[in-house]
């Protein structure tokens, strides 16, 4: 089995590397979006309902990742924008590379939908490869 380094040695030379890098830079350089139009009750609801559990977007039903979340309680919540909310300022988005190859703009749209609500955003990437 190839090591991680061997598997990704040519990543920077791939055709999509520059595209993704430029999109990330463009996103980070965007002026701060005006979130004053959002109601404060939405933010309070999200921050107040978290407690000690991970909030999971119902779109993630059937995701095998949920079977591996065993040391922390989790619950479905249809009021959240990201796939997972792990705290008042932390969220995660799930992305399958297979899906990303079909719809490369999907993750950019999801990040745009988040606005500036979360300080820490984790991208959980599912990589499936066949031998």
Automatic annotation (TrEMBL):
InterPro entries: ERCC1-like_central_dom (IPR047260), ERCC1/RAD10/SWI10 (IPR004579), Restrct_endonuc-II-like (IPR011335). It is found in: Nucleus. It comes from the Eukaryota. Its main location: nucleus. This is ERCC1-like central domain-containing protein. PANTHER family: DNA EXCISION REPAIR PROTEIN ERCC-1 (PTHR12749:SF0), EXCISION REPAIR CROSS-COMPLEMENTING 1 ERCC1 (PTHR12749). GO terms for biological process: double-strand break repair; mitotic recombination; UV-damage excision repair. GO terms for cellular component: ERCC4-ERCC1 complex; nucleotide-excision repair factor 1 complex. Pfam families: Rad10. GO terms for molecular function: damaged DNA binding; single-stranded DNA binding. Belongs to the ERCC1/RAD10/SWI10 family. The keyword Zinc-finger does not apply. Keywords: DNA damage, DNA repair, DNA-binding, Nucleus. The lineage of its organism: Eukaryota, Metazoa, Ecdysozoa, Arthropoda, Hexapoda. The keyword DNA repair applies. Residues 53-127 form the ERCC1-like central domain.
